Structures
1.
Amino acid sequence: MDETDHANGLPAANSGPPAAGSAAGTAAGSAAGTAAAGTAAVPAVRPGPWSRRPRRSTVVLAVVAVVGGLAFAILFAFGVTRLSAKTGSSPMRPTGIPASVSTRLAGLMQLTPVPPSAAPGFTLTDQSGHAISLASFRGKTVVLTFMDSHCTDICPLVSREFIDANRDLGPDARNVVFIAVNVNPYHRRIADMAAYSSEQQLDSIPSWHFVTGPLPSLRAVWNGYQIQVEAPGRNADVIHTSLIYFINPQGRERYAAAPMVDHTMKGTAYLPASQLASWGRGIALVARAAGR
């Protein structure tokens, strides 16, 4: 799954590929112009035969910055970290970051507080066929992201990080719910959500829900959370914004983070084990902080 974002339309359910629009080309050009900054802002991957492609979740945010203040806030905080690294000074800590999260870890996650507003509600169906309402989880912290049920790129990495985060939460895991909203308009069956959850061992998380539903309902959730999706065809990679939202027990957004990915020279999605572990620990720390 490619994470470079474009602002195209989506296909109707079970229809053919959407017509290509000029917005895609514009977005791609914007992404290319910001790729270098996105790469430099994240701690370097250990030396080895790995490609130096930009971490495309950062490129995504550069493209969708015009959508709202959330993406701009992430880019601004991350730009400050890059400037500090370039000048050799200690990284400047963005305001509003939980005290339990180190400045370095916040930079790795591109973590930022978001304006305290009610998280857009939804009711969709999870991998077990159960109707899932975001409002039903009041009293718990919700870690919310967006995944492609047929993804072989960044989504499996985020899945691993969720599993690690659930483990790192320990007893506090009972107060945290992990939800992913499907972004694949062609593969929306409950069986698709169940197969992905089983393959990635996400069903080992007791509070895991991979939700799907009618395309208009999914589109409404994507729009509510500033997630842009392009699905060129049934067998093509789904291109979408990659974000993790942390929603507090009162149902209000508190923080957002931008997942990252590197690739080997052969194009295989990859992150060093140390970064995967750091992400898992960071998600757990932020989930705890959001619940306070």
2.
Amino acid sequence: MLLILKWKDSVNELRELSVDLSSLEYVYIGRLDRELRELFSIDDVSSIYVFNIDKKFIQDMNVRSRKVSRRHVLIKLISDRLIIMDHGRDGSGSTYGTYVDGVRLRKGSSIAVHGSKFKLRIADLDIEINVVNNSSMSSYDVYDILNIVDKIFNTINDMRIQVKYGVPAHLLSPHVVALEDLVKFFESYLSRIVDKSLVDYIFKNVYDSLNNVKKCVLDLEDNPNDPVLLNVLDRSLVELKGHVEALDNIVRGVVKRSSEGRI
């Protein structure tokens, strides 16, 4: 089971994190107490983290809040059921409460969550959580998706090399067309194994970066070897690759769980 968490950080930027709950079995969301700060070698007492103690997994959410309790909420997988617990520092519950789809959990209590999407609120932090729990993919789908991703990466790498060595813009245009087609195929195939709404935000970033690449290539036709345009083009290609890598990680997580029969 893969959880995709979405929230806004302290500067109001949308953040996203994929959590492989089938592997981790549980995660806490909250501030760190002294024991955990020592375990993870972190001094900050106000930042919010997603973490697993046993496997020493931790991700900074880039949010600071004193209202969120230490170990505020526990999310765990029990016999394929997703359980949300208002945990708090010692398991007796948080100070400012945990809400699931707008309903406040009784202090220290747990609830089983069903469905592919729910909203979690811990104190003053809102988190949208999408649940990827899909075993319906075929080996044909998997092969095609991973093959498409490899082709996208190869095309981006080829373009970066050509940009570095000053290849004329008109020779870059076919690569842009190929990237557009590959991204569309990728989006189509990915919709077979996950709910498209789960990855819409990442695909928006993919298309934004792809549009920047197209614009740079067109501008280079009128301004060949412009160092500013070449730098922007290379940066846009790097951004595009990063967004595709985020999608690739989701695919590989689902593929791994499917091959192990755990989703």
